[in-house]
Amino acid sequence: MFVLIFLAGVLLGHAYLWWRLVRQTTGQGRLRRAMTLVLVLMLAALMATFLGARLGLESWVAWPGYLWIAVMFYLVVILVVLEIPRAVVGAFLRRERAREPVAVPALSAPASDPVVEPAPASVEAADRGEPASPDRRLLLARTVAVVAGVGAAGTVGYGVTTALGDPVVERVGVTLPKLDQRLSGLRFAVVSDIHLGPLTGIGHTERIVRMINGLEADVVAIVGDLVDGSVARLGPLAQPLKHLESRYGAFFVTGNHEYFDPAGPGEWIEELGELGVRSLRNERVEIRHQGAVLDLAGVNDVGGASAGEPPDFAKALGGRDTSRSSVLLAHQPIQVTEAARHGVDLQLSGHTHGGQIAPFNLVVGLQQPVVSGLARFGDTQVYVTRGAGFWGPPVRVGAPPEITLVELRS
């Protein structure tokens, strides 16, 4: 269903762009044919990017395909927004054309001495909503096209710079009512949605590890969507994770992307274990700090159900001492509903990317209870990080990449 909706959206988007940027800005001839060909080639690059992941071609088609997705998206958004002012200006031009006087010969005057009278035909045309003169119509279409093109290019350029730059370090204090005072000040470095892939390179991982180590956290929590491919393809990109530093270790829970591989996340779980990152698969561990104990649990992503590995809150949280505070690692914010039923004090999640490309944050909010930041659901709090990487286009607009330092307070 997702693939069908995506394909329909892409085809409709390209048809709309051809109508507004090619059909209405050019006449019949070479220029129109050339612009049409460019649009077709960009559509082909976009399709090849998504097919390339399965065919092994993604590395050389990914950049043009993914960048065009972002440019296409913002072209469509800007052009749609401009439809209203475009219609207003078009109506104004039609009225101006209707009011322009035309020379018509009077019956009683010589043909060489015209009398100026209003042109009823022009007024009737304006009343019927017919367009302004061809020259004005073409000028309006080209002006709108230039504004949309400059706006889309500028927005995507800014978004690429943001996505490929250093993540923002967000420092968040979370007060847990029943937290043992001896645990107050315990710090979690939280990172999600690293999305190791053909566009990131090993430098992406090295930078994230360097920034996490600089926070000197007690616990490192990687809450899903670490990779977009197999160990065979992306294993070398994960190697810097073995240099993660923290007092009580680094922990990982699966995200939905870990289940995109038909083989499941097993190979990556094993690989991470060799790198010193422990995976919590519907289980929990005790974090002992200054003589007090905190329950740290992790559940599989909801996408694991299709692979026979659904999240199991009862297994991860059942039978524990409920007088102790608990922190749950769960990839998707929507899992907080079940977490609240099991008395979790704090859930750490990712998945949303904060929307990644505005205004997608509005769409994400329809699916997830929290897009980013800290929220409360009954006695359970959830913090949703925007993620340190990107998925699809290497673009982030309105949602810069993030690494979070969460400090627990009593």
Automatic annotation (TrEMBL):
Alphabetical list of InterPro entries matching this protein: Calcineurin-like_PHP, Metallo-depent_PP-like, Metallophosphoesterase_sf
Keyword terms, alphabetized: Hydrolase, Membrane, Metal-binding, Transmembrane, Transmembrane helix
Residue stretches spanning the membrane: 6-22, 34-53, 65-89
Keyword Transmembrane helix (UniProt): yes
This protein's GO CC annotations: membrane
Record-annotated Calcineurin-like phosphoesterase domain positions: 186-354
Region Disordered: start-end pairs: 110-131
Gene3D superfamilies: 3.60.21.10
Composition-biased stretches (Low complexity): 110-124
Name listed for the protein in its UniProt record: Calcineurin-like phosphoesterase domain-containing protein
Highest taxon above the source species: Bacteria
One Pfam family hit: Metallophos
Cofactor list: a divalent metal cation
Family: Belongs to the metallophosphoesterase superfamily.
Keyword Cell inner membrane: no
GO molecular function: metal ion binding; UDP-2,3-diacylglucosamine hydrolase activity
GO biological process terms held by the UniProt record: lipid A biosynthetic process
